[in-house]
Amino acid sequence: MTIVITAPLAFLVLGPVMTQLSNGLATIVMAIYNFSPILFGIIGGAFWQVVVIFGLHYAFIPVLINNITNLGQDPINAVFQVTVFALAGAAIGFALKTKNAKNKSMGYSVGITGLIGITEPIIYSVALPYRRQFVYAFISGGMAGAIQAFANAKIYGFGNGGLMAFPLFIDPQTNSLHSMYSFIIAAAVAFFVPIILNFVLGTGED
């Protein structure tokens, strides 16, 4: 009965609606980038992980792959990549500051997971239950995204995020490290700002 009820809904209602919503979101993002790369860097760096919550980030994958395939580089994903470090920093900062042993263990665990590019565990175990952590990630992600956009950073491949993304920022044609240096700076800002905010403003557990 579950399959009989949900399968038609998924194919006939939810699928088309979410596809249109995803495509519309991708169109809006590209319009913001074309209007102002720095504005896009702030908004994309701050709120990309919110898009991930709803699964709408899959709409961007064809856009990102198309940029790499046809242009050899992509400035959009160069911004999105720093958001991983913002959430990882929030989780690690949460773990460092909290006095709750269970939360400390959880924060370290999902924070390390975030550093290798997987943010969903952070979102559902730290960022949403303790919403202040999401705010910290918004702030640091927006700052890091602005740095990437200001530096005109590009990513030259499509692969996993986090620490394993650094080689993707090396220009394969010229071996230029400009984008990788920008990514290092932006990733450091995204990671350490939430840690500082946790110590200054608290974890939000209260």
From TrEMBL:
Task: Report what the protein is called.
Answer: PTS transporter subunit EIIC
* Source organism of the structure: Streptococcus ovuberis
Q: Which GO terms describe its biological process?
A: phosphoenolpyruvate-dependent sugar phosphotransferase system; trehalose transport
**KW Ligase (keyword) present:** no
Q: Where is the PTS EIIC type-1 domain?
A: 1-206
Q: Which UniProt keywords apply?
A: Cell membrane, Membrane, Phosphotransferase system, Sugar transport, Transmembrane, Transmembrane helix, Transport
Q: Which GO terms describe its molecular function?
A: protein-N(PI)-phosphohistidine-sugar phosphotransferase activity; protein-phosphocysteine-trehalose phosphotransferase system transporter activity
Subcellular location as annotated = Cell membrane
